[in-house]
Structure formats: structure tokens, C-alpha cells
Structures
1.
Amino acid sequence: MKVATIDQCPVGMLKGVTADGVPVVLANVEGKICALEDVCSHEDLPLSDGELEGNEVVCLYHGARFDACSGARKTLPAVRPVRSYPVEVRDGEIFVDTA
């Protein structure tokens, strides 16, 4: 499902979107678009409110860190990863598969 254009998610930035009713955070890691479920596994708050530092999404609320592309947990207080989704970029448009 198309969720955004590449212009809406510049390098080094996060963007919250919805794909098939699922909240998704897009991360532009040095030109590579990655997609994670937009819910921190620590306290169910939106990761899209946070920041992208290098290749890690940093939750604004309690500082938990996740790999922006795999969703792997990097630091406490999160103890579980977040789900990652396949992304395809075609003609400047970003598509995410949440199935």
C-alpha cells in the first residue's frame, strides 16, 4: 500500500503513516527507507514522535532504541523488538506491506 512519497521522508527523519489501518513509522536511513510498527514495545507510545539517530529510532518518551530497519531492541527500557515491514520505493513513492 502506498503510504508516502520519498520527499515526505527526508534523509535522517522519521514519518508516521498508516498502512491498511496499521500505524507505521518510516525511517530514512542514509537514503534507505525502512518501516517499523509505530508503537514502542516498552509502553505502546508512538515511535514517530522520536528521532532517528544514525540507524536507530529513539523513543521520545523513555529513550528506548530500536534498529530502524530490523526493529531489534537496542537499549532498555524496551525488552522486546518492534515489528518491521517490507518496503518498496517505486518512482518516488513508498509502499509498505503490513500483511
2.
Amino acid sequence: MITRKGSAKWDGGLKDGKGLVSTQSGALSDQPYGFGTRFEDKPGTNPEELIGAAHAACFSMALAMMLEQEGISGVSIETSSKIGLDKEGEGFAVKTAHLVTTIGADGDESKVLEVAQKAKEGCPISKLLNAEITMEASVR
């Protein structure tokens, strides 16, 4: 089993508190986050955009692997994942993830789009998210 770690530090209450988020690799090191970065448009990161980045990266890698397995070459993929944070009762819940991907590939467009659907379902982060995952895919 491969294990990776992310970590967070938090000081203070919800609205006046401040946090720092880091990754094991050091790609993120003490990046600020807080109420303003999550619920307003303040500078810094938030859990939902980090999940979105992880989802987009995971999907892109899964799609590249699956296209390669189908013998499709010349692959270039650009993906974003919009994570929806919705009010639920007294709190919040992530309810949706929407992938938007543009795929360049030397292959039949319908086949590429079929493989993209399989990658949407099969990527490990898609499997982790207990959310409705939708997708818009186009081939350039």
C-alpha cells in the first residue's frame, strides 16, 4: 500500500482563526487557509480547491493510462474539478464534483470520450468522493 500525507495546523475560532496546510512532499508548505479563504474570496487555499486539484490530477493520470492501454497516443489532457460545498443541516457537505476536461489524442473521438467516462468512474479520487460526479469532455 502507498501512503501519502497532508497536514494542517489551526489556531483560534472558526471565523477569527487561521490555519496552515502542508503536504508530505513539500509541494505545499504552510499555505494559509481560514474562514475567509473557504467562504469568501480571501487569498489562500481551502479544502475544496485542494480536493478539486487532487481530483483533476488523479482523473488526468487515470485517463492517460487508460488511453495508452487502448493504444491511443499523442495524449494531452487539461482538467479542472469543481467541488460543490453545500449547506446541510447545521453544517456543510461536499455534494458534487464536476470534471471539465479537454483531451488531445491521436484517436477516434468517440473512443476517447468513452475512455474518459471510464476514467471518471475509475480514478481513485472519484471512488473516494461520495458525491455526484459529472463531467464535460471535449477532444481538440
3.
Amino acid sequence: MASRFDGQLRWLHKVRLYPTCTQERALVTMLRVTRELYNASLQQRRDAWTTRRVSLASREQHAQLTELREADPRFAAVYRECQDAVLHRLDLAFAAFFRRVKRGETPGYPRFKPAARWNQLQFPHGDRALKFNTGQLRVCVPGVGAIRLRKGRAVPEFGRAFLVTKNGRWYAVFEAHRAPLPLPATGCSAGIDRGIRVLAALSDGTMIGNIRSGSRRRAVVERHQRALDAVTHKDAGGRVFNRHERIRLASVRRLARAKECEANARRDWLHKVSRGIVQRFDRIALEALRLRSMTRSAKGTLEAPGVGVRAKAGLNRALLDAGFGMLATLIREKAANAARTLIEVDARYSSQTCAACGYVCKESREGRRFTCVRCGHAADADVNAAQVILLRAESPPKRAPGTARGRQYVAA
């Protein structure tokens, strides 16, 4: 059972479900019916605008849904609130589309959903629809029955709920509110420098290893990729024409589960690391990294091709394998729940700055070691950077009018 924080002390509890064959067929039927409802509602709105220049209101489609349920037993067999959530999801898609249009952007029009991209059932009032038995060993789903779930941590009082399928497995996700549970004060602070050689270097000298889950499991993933290529048949244009063959679908699922195993190992390690950091320190300082810019491709364009594309691709792969962004997110959510203080500081020149005298010089860093050319301060380069990050968090820079954000350093 896993939990995730969405920024407002609302936690999503994810529980593995074990439906029987009959129950799984019922869940798949619910997915198919809700997807057909979404696509039909989208087509109706498009036709109303293109033929009559009329914006179809949501309330009209809700009223027509009532008539459809009376006429079609397939739609009547699906829980009504799941279908209302589908129409609400379509409203959100159009709201996002028009919001971007007003900002002068060129957004894509809401698209029809194929079966591969429709994998969840939403229950807006999940506490009324989904009922647990004694001991929370089974959850009763309307129209499906009592589904066995994985025994683990008890699910608290919840609001919305989702039934999600991924790689042939089913999960229940419950949205619950939690009050913060402050941890005892330790009186300690830490700066954290994230890297590839070590996942995180703390200002107190602690080095947290990078397990490199992607590199460790690369052989397994590549074996499944070769097996998928062996059963895939393409035409002259490179398009797959046996996409729905049973043997290829099985190979696709094995590859997806191998990648899921890799992601689960990374997430498990980052959960443990972030929990240990939050338990040890009252104040935590992190670099404010822009990971999207850091992992941008170097391919360039046909007119101006990039340089060092292969090396940059390897660096991007290593950065994403380490899980920088996920580590920061987990520290942020656990710090909020434990009433800890998290500070994000400017990361510029932190690897070239001396933690003892504040002097900035790129010659001070030589590989893994940092030796200040001014004062002679010597330390591990990552630990020195973590100490600089902590100093920046404890003494925020005073910004003069008209200057850029961040501390003003004297460059060598």
C-alpha cells in the first residue's frame, strides 16, 4: 500500500486489488462503457458547434444521460456517479482548452480516447459507493461485487476514489485528508546536494548512495525489448500491423512490467531516503533545480544540429535514473506532514563556492575533491556544495534594487 501527497495534505492511498475473472470482466465492461460515453459526448459537442454553432451545455448532456440509462441496459448497469465523473472530466478538458486559447496559446482540441489511454473509473463520492468489510479484507464495488484486496495498512476515512488498471493489474486509490503529525524537534539542520555519483550528499558529511535501478535492470529490460521486436511485424513505412496479436500483447505486457519493477525499486529507495532525512533534521535546504531544462535533449534542428548528443543523452538518462525530482517531491511531502521546514535555494555556483570563506573559483574543484585556492579548505566536493546550500538557506541574500535573485558572489 502506498501513499502520495498532492500539496494540500490530501493523500492518495493505493491498494492492490485481486478481482476474480468474472469481476475483472465487469470492470473492463465499465471501462468500455465510460469510454464510449466520453467519446460520444465529445462528438456531440463537436457536431453541435460545427453544424449549428451552438455550445452544448453540460446540464443538457447530464439530462440526456438519464434518458440513455433508461433506454440502454449497458449504461444502466454502470454506477451513475462514474458516468457523471466522465462528463465532468470532459468539462475540465474543454475548460483547459479555452483557458489556453485566452492566453494566446495554440492548444490541442480535446481528443477521443482510445482503449489504451482509458484506464480508470472515478467515484466522486467514493465513501458512499465503495464499502469495506470487517478488517478491510474486501471492498464492495457497485455492479461488480466484493473484491479481495491486499492486506496492509488500514485505509482511513476517504472522499474520492478511483479504480485503476495498469499492466493487467487492478488498484484502488483513495483520496484521504490527513492532519499533520509533527515529529519531535532534533535541533539539526542539513543542506542536501543531489548528484549522480551519490544520490545525496548532506552537509554533515553523510553520503547516500545512488542505487541506479535503471542501470541494474537494463539487461532485463533490453531482453524484453528484443523479444518484443522479434514478434513485431512492420510494413515498409514502419507501421506495426500485428498490434493486436495475442503473442505481441503478451510481450508488450512483460516489457511494461519490467519497467514498472524498475520504477518501483527506485520509488521504494527514495521513500526510505526521504523518510530518514525528515526524521533527522528540523530544517532542510535543497537546490532549486530546473530538471526539465537540465534533461533537455541536445539534438537541435536540421539546420543547427547539436553537439555531443550521445554524451548528453547518457547524462539525461543518468539524471532521470537517479530520481532527483521524485526525491525532492517526497522530502517536500514528508516535511509538510512532519511540520519540518524546507527551504529551496539558488543552486548557481554552489559546486565552485568555498563553504569556509565563500570564495568562488572553478579551479577549486578537481573531480571529487574541493580545495579552496584562497583559504585552503579541503573537503569532498559534494559535501562542500551541501554546506554551501545550508549557508545560503540560513543567511538569505539581501538583494539590491535592480539585481538578480540570489547571493552576490565574487567570481574569480
4.
Amino acid sequence: MDLEMQKNFIHLRSFEDKPNYPNSKPKFCVTCGTKATQEALFNVGDGVILVEKYCDACAKNVK
């Protein structure tokens, strides 16, 4: 059975890496791989929220 996840865009918010946190690693854009500066939140059902990170350029195309 092939189930496709339905992502419903909620909103976009600013994201800042916290390099001084222990074991913190840089976060990268899921689209192009550059440093992430934005987080997009999606409702995927049953109260589950998916967070994806994007650079400023790619965040403009998030829906």
C-alpha cells in the first residue's frame, strides 16, 4: 500500500542556528542545501506538525 503524506502549509517563521548549544550542527535548506534561515510548518494530520528548513530564496516558493 502506497500512502502519500498530505502536507498543508501553516506558516513560515525565521530560523537561527544556535552554534553554542552542545552537539548543535548547522541546518541546511531542504531544497538547495545552502544554510537555512527560515522554517516552514506543515500540518500532516492527526495533530502532527512537520517542520522543514529553507534558505530565504527557496522559502519564497513554499506553499
